[in-house]
Design brief:
Elements: E1 8-15, H1 18-28, E2 32-38, E3 46-51, E4 60-65, E5 78-87, H2 91-100, E6 104-111, E7 114-120, E8 126-132, E9 153-161, H3 165-173, E10 177-182, E11 185-189, E12 198-203, E13 217-224, H4 227-239, E14 248-249, E15 253-259, E16 265-273, H5 298-304
Parallel strand pairs: 1-4, 5-8, 9-12, 13-16
Antiparallel strand pairs: 1-13, 2-3, 3-4, 5-9, 6-7, 7-8, 10-11, 11-12, 14-15, 15-16
């Protein structure tokens, strides 16, 4: 069993309008945009990152907004819900805030002894807020959400699968332990993790496969401290039979990718070097930052990319 992985690093999804996406995560959810860059493989498309003040691993939601993308079709073989941690007693505030913002799909419930509020993002994305006692992670309050209500980072993510066996076995190999199994949901947790510690597996044997599109999670990333730990994980996964990509430099972290038995794309990402490698912390996410191979496209991209504000 591996001991290098320390919980979630980031979750990357697809969107339609970049401006709408930016407004929702900064104005409605109160997160900070910590990086404005472009897709490495499609530089005419933004890659937007939202999180806490510095984009701490375990807090970062990222998006590829394609202006004319079709809506995704929910199903199995994908991340169903991305769940954020909020302080105890704050769900009433969030219910009011999300209602005023016109968010759809609001539903309160309780699972594994935790109060939750489900809601949909602007492209139908599945989200929830969970009240967590004594989550000591730093919050970002720069966008008008108070310290007593602000998101602390991820709590968990749910995977929708036809069968949980292979993926549950993989997650246990990655260091997760079974916490509970209730109402058809298997909960796995990361002991000594970074706070973004849980993965829930929903088994849906009669549901068709998901179709990627706006509102779909593209991949889910798990955190390791550095490149040395990442290489240890890569070797162990390959020795177990997984087809793992070479290490890819993503400017703000190094990444490896592999496909799980249930069809979900997993990434292992380093905590280093972080989002302040090319911007001062006080100005994260303000300027358009381009990967070096796309720097020559700046003039055209600045004309083409949708303005995020205004």
């Amino acid at each position: 069993m591996l001991d290098q992985i320390k919980g979630l690093h980031h979750v990357t999804s697809m969107a339609g309008s970049a401006r709408t996406n930016n407004q929702f995560f900064t104005d409605t959810l109160g997160l900070r945009r910590v990086k404005k860059t472009v897709n490495f493989d499609a530089p005419d498309v933004y890659h937007l990152y939202y999180g806490d003040e510095v984009g701490t691993p375990g807090s970062v939601m990222t998006y590829f907004p394609f202006p004319h993308i079709a809506k995704g079709r929910p199903g199995t073989g994908e991340v169903g819900s991305t769940v954020f941690s909020v302080p105890q007693g704050s769900l009433g505030y969030w219910t009011d805030r999300l209602t005023k913002a016109g968010a759809e799909g609001l539903k309160a419930d309780e699972a594994f002894g935790e109060k939750r509020l489900h809601f949909a993002g602007p492209d139908g994305d599945g989200f929830a807020l969970v009240e967590v006692k004594d989550d000591a992670r730093a919050q970002w309050t720069g966008n008008g959400v108070g310290a007593d209500e602000a998101i602390r980072g991820f709590h968990s993510a749910s995977l929708r699968l036809r069968d949980d066996g292979g993926t549950a076995e993989l997650l246990k190999f990655m260091g997760y332990e079974q916490v509970d199994n209730k109402d058809g949901v298997l909960r796995l947790g990361m002991p000594g993790g970074n706070g973004a510690d849980f993965i829930d597996i929903e088994t849906m044997p009669n549901i068709s496969n998901a179709r990627l599109g706006a509102g779909s999670v593209h991949h889910i990333a798990f955190a390791v401290e550095n490149r040395e730990k990442q290489l240890e994980v890569r070797k162990a996964l390959m020795d177990t039979g997984y087809q793992v990509t070479p290490v890819i430099d993503r400017d703000y972290f190094w990444a490896i990718y592999f496909r799980t038995p249930g069809g979900v794309l997993f990434e292992i990402a380093t905590n280093e070097p972080g989002f302040d490698r090319d911007e001062d912390t006080a100005h994260l996410g303000e300027a358009l930052k381009l990967p070096s191979q796309h720097a020559h496209l700046r003039t055209e991209l600045e004309k083409h990319l949708e303005p995020l504000e205004g």
